[in-house]
């Protein structure tokens, strides 16, 4: 799932080298922290948060195969 978020974010932003995804795995959940450059925050979040919601939906679908819950946080 970490790679999925990285690929999606890198295609959206102007500074793909600054995209970093930190993954924290627990027994039943996965936390993904997406960090991008401050100038690229709007591109990753999108108008009214539509792109961020889409990223979260895709990761939840990927996590359903493993039986884990996933949360995506977007940070600077």
What does this structure look like?
- By secondary structure, this protein is an alpha+beta fold.
- The protein has one domain: K homology (KH) domain (GMP Synthetase, Chain A, domain 3, 2-Layer Sandwich).
- Helix content is 41%, strand content 26%.
- Strands 1-2-3 form a 3-stranded mixed β-sheet.
- A hairpin with a 3-residue loop joins strand 1 and strand 2.
Q: Helical amount among residues, as a percent range?
A: 40-55%
* Tally of contiguous helical segments: 3
At CATH level 3, the topology is GMP Synthetase, Chain A, domain 3
What proportion strand? Answer: 25-35%
Specify Rg, calculated over alpha carbons. 12 Å
Describe what is shown at a glance.
The chain is of the alpha+beta class and 76 residues long. The protein has a single domain, classed as GMP Synthetase, Chain A, domain 3 (2-Layer Sandwich).
What keywords describe this structure?
76 residues; alpha+beta; GMP Synthetase, Chain A, domain 3; 3-stranded mixed β-sheet; 3 helices; 26% strand; globular
Topology diagram in text:
Layout: H1 2-12, E1 20-25, E2 29-35, H2 41-45, H3 50-64, E3 69-75
Parallel strand pairs: 2-3
Antiparallel strand pairs: 1-2
